[in-house]
Amino acid sequence: MHSFDYLEPKTLGEAARMLGDHGARARLLAGGTDLLVQMEGVRHRPETVIYLGRIPELRRITWDAQAGLRIGATATLRELENHPAAIESYPALVRGAREVGSVQIRNLATLAGNLCNASPSADTSPALLAYDAAAEILGSDGESRLVPVSDFWTGPGRTVLEPGEMVASIRLPAPAAGLRSFYYKLAVRKAMDLAMVGIAATLVPADSGAQQVRIALSAVAPVCLRAQNAEAAVEQGGAGAIDEAARLAEEAVSPIDDQRASAAYRREMVRVLTTRALTELLG
């Protein structure tokens, strides 16, 4: 690994100033389960690494029945998967978090790091989309802005973050009454493998059918995406809504052939898993 300067801010203000000073030459370190591997290769060769683990407020997970869940940038996936409010209100996200690596990895890895790595096959990304999550982005001037996760990724490994910006937290709105959720990861192996297809879906039931639906898919396009036409088909209801939604979800994706699966197989599995998710949620 190449040499670099190492900094440890103790406050968010310090971190913002350091980011402002070093900009694109710096990389932020939280758990390091992605960054350190990439630094051993050629993807990242930062001149400065800024470690965020000494900033107490970034480690917190807070829950409010009105505002929802706020997950700090250095809160680990293990902390998330064991958090009572997350288990109760966001089970699809908890299931996605539990699919990341091993327990040892999740004791270090963070949700914010999984988000910022911008892998099309990330395990937590479909649930973040399905729950309408947003990223709180802090700039070097100390000002913050909220960006919906649906607008956060711009391509594989690319995000809307500008030099000098960092994700301070991830926020999930309080779930609507009766919200149901589904998550499934299709992979070659049962554990510690990348997804061939990932799907998360949420549904708010109405008197007949669904009032609101979200269908999010991973590993089948350059970024994790929502199948919005499929969602609309379910919300509109009627005979054959599930079959139509599954067909539209299949149309929404643009998978590739790789060592895990062919594009054709991934498309078929999108249709199958969308049918499975909606059948379970509407049932």
Give a nutshell description of this structure.
Helices cover 33% and strands 24% of the residues. It has 11 helices and 14 strands. Helix 9 (228-236) packs antiparallel against helix 10 and helix 10 (241-252) runs antiparallel to helix 11.
Strand content: 15-25%
> Stretches where pLDDT falls below 50 for ≥5 residues?
none
Reading the helices and strands in chain order gives EHEHEEEHHHHHHEEEEEEEEEHHH
Number of domains: 3
CATH first level of the largest domain = Alpha Beta
Radius of gyration: 19 Å
Q: How many helices in DSSP terms?
A: 11
Largest sheet: 5 strands, antiparallel
In whole angstroms, the N-to-C terminal distance is 53 Å
Helix content: 25-40%
Write the CATH fold name of the largest domain. Uridine Diphospho-n-acetylenolpyruvylglucosamine Reductase, domain 3
Number of strands: 14
Counting helices, strands and paired strands, the structural category is alpha+beta
